[in-house]
Amino acid sequence: INISGLNAGAIVLLSLGIAFVFSDISNIHIRAKTSLLQEADAVRTLGRISLNIEPEVGAPLMEATRAYVSGVLQKEWQAMQQGDALSIRQGTKSALTSLTVMSDIVYDPFNFTKLQPLTASQLGNLVARIREYRLVRIEISEYRIGSRGLILAILTLVASSVILSMAMLKKPASQFLCIFSFFVVSLFALYLAYASQNPFSGLDAISNAPLQEAFDRLKVMQLN
């Protein structure tokens, strides 16, 4: 029975399934990297503005900003690498306290009277951005391909291999080599997908360099 068309279709189906998995992982990595860069930029901008406003507001704001970035690097980043977003949300490994202090300083009505309206609005927008990007980081660190996706890929791999074997019954030597190569390549692709599912750890992990550079910059900033 000639089932070469069915065989080719099964292989294409498996290839598309793996491609979709990698596409989803790639989009998650891009989203995580973008949010990290935006958060680092907002932190640096907040630090620069705090240098040129009233010391009564700028000094505690700078201190809270430094404490926040330090908390992210020392606490939250480790939890994100482990995919342990729960500990961040529960406050075990969290920089939320420093972020709350930043918000309290920026949104304090008494501090508003010491700042220009445009400056106060800009500070509020920056803190809101930092809070938003932080939540994106935490959410992304929980990303998983899911057991259903892996089971579907494995079942498709097995079905494709069986069909491939049936299509090459008269060629045992080439059949063995082809199926062996097919299995190795497919399993390696699935392993790469599984090892790369958390963008903050594993293969092609996103570096904390943008936040580290922002923290180094904040440490050398001096209030006027």
Helical percent range? Answer: over 70%
Please compute the radius of gyration using only Cα atoms: 25 Å
Which spans have pLDDT < 50 for at least 5 consecutive residues?
A: 1-6
Biggest beta sheet attributes? none
**Number of DSSP-assigned strands:** 0
Overall description:
This protein is an all-alpha fold and 224 residues long. Helices cover 79% and strands 0% of the residues. The chain is built from nine helices and no strands. Mean pLDDT is 82; it is low at 1-6.
Task: Please describe the structure with a list of short key phrases separated by commas or semicolons.
79% helix; 224 residues; mainly alpha; disordered N terminus
Write the layout of secondary structure elements.
Blueprint: H1 4-51, H2 55-81, H3 85-89, H4 96-107, H5 109-112, H6 117-140, H7 147-167, H8 172-195, H9 209-220
Overview in brief:
By secondary structure, this protein is an all-alpha fold.
